[in-house]
Amino acid sequence: MRRFRFSDPGFEAAFAAFVDERRETPEEVDTLVRDILLAVRAEGLDAVLRFGRQFDRANVSAENIRVTPEEIEEGAAQCSPEVREAIAFAAKRIRAYHERQRPADQWFKDEAGVELGWRWTPLEAVGIYVPGGRAAYPSTVLMNAVPAAAAGVERIAMVTPPGRLQPAVLAAAKDAGITEIWRVGGAQAVAALAYGAGPILPVDKIVGPGNAFVTAAKRRVYGTVGIDALAGPSEIVVVSDAGSRPDWIAADLLSQAEHDPAAQSILITDDEAFADAVMAQIEEQLKSLETNEDARVSLKNHGAVIIAPLEESPRLVNLIAPEHVEFALDEPERLADRVRHAGAIFLGRHAPEAIGDYVAGSNHVLPTSRAARFSSGLSLYDFIKRTSIVKCDEAAFAILGPPTVALADAEGLPAHARSAAIRLGQG
C-alpha cells in the first residue's frame, strides 16, 4: 500500500494524482458489448442462447432457460438452516428500512386557486442482474429485490449466469418473492431485459452489479430502460485513531480488497505507529485469507495509508468520495457530520462496513468511482416515479392564462399561445 504523509511538501499534488487514478473499462469490451446488444435486439432468444454457449459454455435451451418453481423450492431447501435464518433476518431489516423511505402523495390549492400535486407510483417491471462466479451472493438478491417489492413493483425478473444456482441465492430469491429467474448472464442478459428475447419480456429498469461487460451493456441500454448506476470496483476509507484495535481495522480494509483486484482500501490515521500495526495485521491475516490473491493485488495497486491530522479527514474523504467510509472513533459524528460525498457512512468502532453489506438494513448498492459526489445508493426511490398533477377551474385559468400567452409568444410558439388565448376568449 502506498503511503502519503500530510506533512510532506508535495502531499496535496500526490494525493490529488492518486484520487484521479482511473480503473476504466477497456475500449474492446465496449465494442464487443455493442455487437452483442445489436444481435440480441435483432435475433432475440437465438442470439441470447448463442452467446451463452460462446461465453459461458452453457448448454441452455429455450426449454430450460427459465428456472422452474420446483427448482427454486428444491434449491432453497438445500440451504442450511443457519443461512436461511440469516437471510430472513436480513430481509426483514432491509424491508423495514426501505419501507420508511416511502414518500407521501401531495395535493393542495395555491393562492391562484390552482390545484396542484404529485403522486408516486411503482414501476411495473424491474430486471435484477445477479452475478455468478466470485459474486454469487444472496445479499445481492436481497438488496435489489426487497426494495423493489417494498415499492410495489409487480414483476421482478432475475437473471444470473448459467451454471449451478447456489442454494443461498435461491433461498434469498424465495424470501424476496422472486418467481421469475432466467439462466442468462453477461451483456446478453442486459440486452434480453432491455429489448425482450423470446419468453423473456422487456422490463422498465435494470438494477444489480456485474462485471465490465454488464456495466458497459447497462450504459448502452440506458434510455431504452432505466438503470440504477454504473458499478465500479468496491471502495472503503477507514478513518481511525490509535484507540482502535489494529486487527479490527486490518480486517475492515481487507473486507473490500478481497472483492476484486481493482478494489480500493484506504486508511486515514494520525498515528504512524498505529498505521504500521495495521499493516502488520494485514500481512498476518492475508496468510489465512482464502481470497488473499485478489486482496494482495488490490492493496498493492490501489490501496493507501494516509498519515494526516484527523481534522483533515472530512476534507480528504470528500475529495475521494468513496463508496464506504468508516469513522472508527469514540465521537465519530464530530468529523462524519462534515462529510458530504460518501455512499454510506459507518460510525464508531463497532460499525464495520460488513454489517452494511448484509444486515444493517441500509442498502449496499452504492455509488463508486467518485460518483458519490452526485448520486446516492439504491433505495425505494429507484423503483417509484413521481407524476405531476394540475387542475384549473375557470377562475384559476383567468389568472394563469395571460402570462402563458405572453411567454408562448416570446418563445415563438403560436399554437401554445392560442391554446391559452382561446380559453380567454381571445382566439
**Tally of individual helices:** 17
Tell me the strand percentage band. Answer: 15-25%
Question: What is the CATH T-level topology of the largest domain?
Answer: Rossmann fold
Structural class designation: alpha/beta
Largest sheet: 6 strands, parallel
Sequence of strands across the biggest β-sheet: 1-12-11-10-13-14
Shape: globular
Radius of gyration from CA coordinates = 25 Å
In the CATH hierarchy, the architecture of the largest domain is 3-Layer(aba) Sandwich
Q: Which regions have little confidence, pLDDT < 50, spanning 5+ residues?
A: none
Number of domains: 3
> How helix-rich are the residues, as a percent range?
40-55%
- Mean pLDDT across residues: 95
The CATH class of the largest domain is identified as Alpha Beta
Number of strands: 15
Give the distance, in angstroms, between the N- and C-terminal Cα atoms.
74 Å
Question: Would you give an account of this structure?
Answer:
The chain is an alpha/beta fold and 427 residues long. The protein has three domains: 151 residues, Nitrogenase molybdenum iron protein domain (Rossmann fold, 3-Layer(aba) Sandwich), CATH 3.40.50.1980; 183 residues, Nitrogenase molybdenum iron protein domain (Rossmann fold); 33 residues, no CATH class. It is 45% helix and 17% strand. The protein has 17 helices and 15 strands. The strands form three sheets. It has a six-stranded parallel beta sheet, with helices on both faces. The chain has a six-stranded mixed beta sheet with strand order 2-7-6-5-8-9, sandwiched between helices. A three-stranded antiparallel beta sheet has the order 3-4-15, with no helix packed on it. Helix 14 links the parallel strand 13 and strand 14. The longest helix has 19 residues. The radius of gyration is 25 Å and the shape is globular. The termini are far apart.
